[in-house]
Amino acid sequence: MKRKYILTTGAIGVIFMMLGQLSFSINDSLVKLIVVDTQKNLSILNVIFLRGLITTFCIFLYLKFYEKKIILKIFKISKYHQRGMYEVLTAVCFFTGLVLLPVAEVYTLLMTNPFFVTIFAFLFLKEKVGVRRWTAVIIGFIGVIFVINPQNLNFNILFIFPIIAAVFLTIRDITTKGIATKSNSFEIIFITSVLMTLFSGVGSLFFEFTFKLEYLPNLFISSIFLTIAYIFSVLTIFYAPLSLTASSRYSVIVFGIIFGYFILDEVPSINMLIGAAIISFSGLFVIKRQKDLGKIK
């Protein structure tokens, strides 16, 4: 007799989070592939701008001709802009940190986000956060430390930038929780994409960039996966408590290692593999806990 597996909204939210991180990883790897080819790190703003144009245009076409939405009405919804601005502020702080600090330190500090998410969800959304969820978050962060292996991580006032980025990312998620429904996910990501494109467009004016037609395929594919990632980042918040999906955000590092190898020829070190295993354990811990509670049958 075949067993039937029924997923609750919480389990669906965890799966959506991991699918979103998977999509973000593919997108990031393709963007980095283009940036590496330009041999100019700050050309990332130009690449993000071009990718944003494609993404925004595709979402516009979907909303206009498939969902038959009135675009002007979408622009008038202030909560969408508020959510989008938190995304932009996250990017500003993240890129500032990336320029002023070593990459390893930036990513280590940015991965404090699951801690902030769990704390904010407990304080502001009144979500119940048990010892096991905290354990999953902490185990995942230990995995992050193994992956990044930051050495001589001495205190630096500039650490404030990636930490603020993590806070804004958390506020973005809480804001999304208050506005997300099954039917407005594309509206939310459309405004976010517009604002991110405008921000990167202004920033790209200050850096020289030579566009090659060979970049187009990767830009299109990157745009597709960015759109998918945006959608899942909204849906996961709609379906599941923020504190439940927080530790699943670490999976982006595991996927990053995988696609870094296959797309960028980046061979993972032993500490990366150990960290990836720990992070995977953290995610499996959450899923097993859901099963033990009867939320996955």
3D architecture notes:
The chain is mostly helical. The protein has one domain (11-292). Helix content is 75%, strand content 0%. The protein contains 13 helices and no strands. It has helices at residues 9-38, 44-66, 71-75, 78-100, 103-110, 113-124, 131-148, 160-179, 185-204, 216-239, 242-245, 251-264, 270-292. Helix 1 packs antiparallel against helix 10 (216-239), helix 2 packs antiparallel against helix 9 (185-204) and helix 4 (78-100) runs antiparallel to helix 8 (160-179).
Distance between the termini: 15 Å
Major sheet: none
Strand content: under 5%
Helix tally equals 13
Specify the structural class.
Answer: mainly alpha
Count of beta strands? 0
Anisotropy-based shape: globular
Low-confidence stretches: none
Number of domains: 1
Q: What's the helix-strand series?
A: HHHHHHHHHHHHH
Q: Which percent range fits the helix content?
A: over 70%
Instruction: Give the rounded overall mean pLDDT.
Output: 84
Rg (C-alpha, Å)? 19 Å
